[in-house]
Structure formats: structure tokens, C-alpha cells
Amino acid sequence: MLQLVLNYLGIAMFASSGAMVAIRKGFDLFGIAALGILTGVGGGVVRDVFLGIHPPTSIQHWPNITVAVVATAVATLAARHVIRFNRIVLTLDAVGMGFFATSGAAIAADRGASWFAAVLVGLTTAIGGGIIRDVLVREIPLLMRPDDLYAVPALIGATTYAVIDYFGPQWVGLTVGTVLATVLRLAGLVFGWRLPTGPQDLIVGDP
């Protein structure tokens, strides 16, 4: 049950972030809806493809799409109130990432994946929707940007879930992994944590 709740929360957070990006880019209502829904369910679709679930759950059953539609609509209606917070998209993205990192790993584990595969599927689920969103609006995906941590918190959250699930109750792994991934991502945003880049003298600037 907790796994299902986390999955829906992840969809809602990512769909909301997609809607916020679409509004900032000046999309019409159809574009806002499309980007919100694709962002919300994109990670889950990639997860299901990796796990051999055909058709993917997100398009086979109505709840996931419905959650994405509702979250997109709410975000659109509330945009005037929340878009003034400059980091609202990053915050929504961080929360969604934490939910998806563990729920994706849990779904993979429940379908017989090894702990290693479960961690990788959790990571992919966490970053998939954000990558789809950023590519569609022609931005460098957060995964590739050197500004702050993104994939690392998702990887840590998914790994934490897998370790705890191996030794104890699944709900503990889901809770601890989700909180850890989200907190690490938010802390990275607040404190500017980042991984080292390559040699600075080899970075090519804009022409």
C-alpha cells in the first residue's frame, strides 16, 4: 500500500513540476497538460519497459494518468500563487524524485529483480520523467548539470531501500529511502553541494 501511495505522490510531484515549466515557457493549455502528464508518468513508463511490463502500467490502467491530470490541473490553477517562488520546480522535482527512487526499486524487487537491478530501476524511475520534461523544452537535463546533486540522492535513496528491505520490513525501507533521497536533494539545493567537474581548462565555452 505504501509503495502505491509513493508512486502516486511521485507522479503528482513530477506532473506539477512539468506544468510549472510549461507555464514558464508560455505553452498553451494543451501543451501544459501534455508536458505535465508526460513528466508525471514518464519515469514509470521507462521503469515498466525495463521490467518487461507491457503495456506499461501508466497507460494500461487509468489511476496513474488520472493522478497526473489532476496534479497538472491543480498546478496550473495555482500557478499565479506558487510560480513566484523561484525554486518551486526544483522543490517539486526533488520530492517526486525521492518518491520514485524507492517506489521504482520496490516494484522491481517485487517482480523478482536482484537488489542491484532494483537500485538501477529505482534510479531510472526517479530521473526518467525529469529528463523527458527537460528534453521536450530543450533544456539540459538536471541529471547532466553540474550545479547541484540530482542522480546521487536518488541512487542513495534506492540503495537505502534495497539494503533495509533485504534485512527488514519493506515499509521501513520505503520510508527511510524516500526521506533520505529527498532531504539530500533539497540540502544540495540549499547548500550548493555538487560533484567535482572535469579539468576546468578543458571546458569549452559558448562560441
UniProtKB/TrEMBL annotation:
Signal peptide: none annotated. It comes from the Bacteria. Its main location: membrane. Keywords: Cell membrane, Membrane, Transmembrane, Transmembrane helix. It is a multi-pass membrane protein. Residues 5-78, 91-164 form the Glycine transporter domain. The chain crosses the membrane at residues 6-23, 30-53, 65-83, 90-109, 115-136, 148-164, 170-193. It holds the Pfam family Gly_transporter. It is found in: Cell membrane. Belongs to the UPF0126 family. This is Trimeric intracellular cation channel family protein. It comes from [Mycobacterium] fortunisiensis.
